[in-house]
Write a structure and sequence with these properties.
This protein is of the alpha+beta class. The protein has 6 helices and 5 strands, in the order H-H-H-E-H-E-E-H-E-E-H. The longest helix is centred in the middle third of the chain and has 22 residues.
């Protein structure tokens, strides 16, 4: 129960922010799985909304879980990139790549739902080799709180 609670709401995200939480996530997964994971964080990223940090963290977490479970990869790169008024989290691997036809699970659809709720977009690209997943959110505070979405008429 403690592990599930930690994964559902990692204390580092709230205490130290997205960069530290991503470092912790990557370090832990690297130790447990043997994957070689490179983490690149743009020092100039800015998110005005706590929900945006949570969504980007969750996307990275789910993407890394998918890489570990399905990709047969040895190397993964996670990048937090700031561009103008946008912030991107990109996860790319050197694995087997996405099959042409995939069964609908909760991973990709959950990531897409989280990102689109905040007005962002999720892109999945076939690479050679592997797969690249990019989640993009605005860095501006015009994002509505997730709680506000539940109370829409």
């Amino acid at each position: 129960i403690r592990a599930i609670s930690f994964l559902a709401h990692p204390p580092l995200l709230e205490e130290l922010g997205l960069a530290a939480a991503l470092e912790n996530l990557v370090d832990g997964l690297e130790r447990r799985t043997g994957l070689k994971i490179s983490l690149h964080i743009d020092e100039h990223y800015r998110l005005d909304h706590e929900d945006a940090e949570i969504v980007l963290y969750r996307v990275a977490q789910a993407a890394l879980s998918n890489v570990h479970r399905h990709a047969h990869a040895t190397n993964v790169t996670v990048s937090l990139i700031a561009r103008r008024s946008m912030v991107h989290i990109a996860v790319s691997d050197d694995g087997a790549g996405m099959p042409v036809h995939i069964s609908r699970g909760v991973g990709l659809s959950g990531m897409r739902e989280r990102v689109t709720e905040l007005g962002g977009r999720l892109t999945v690209l076939r690479a050679s080799p592997g797969t690249k997943l990019i989640a993009t959110l605005t860095s501006r505070s015009r994002i509505r709180a997730v709680g506000d979405l539940a109370h829409r008429p």
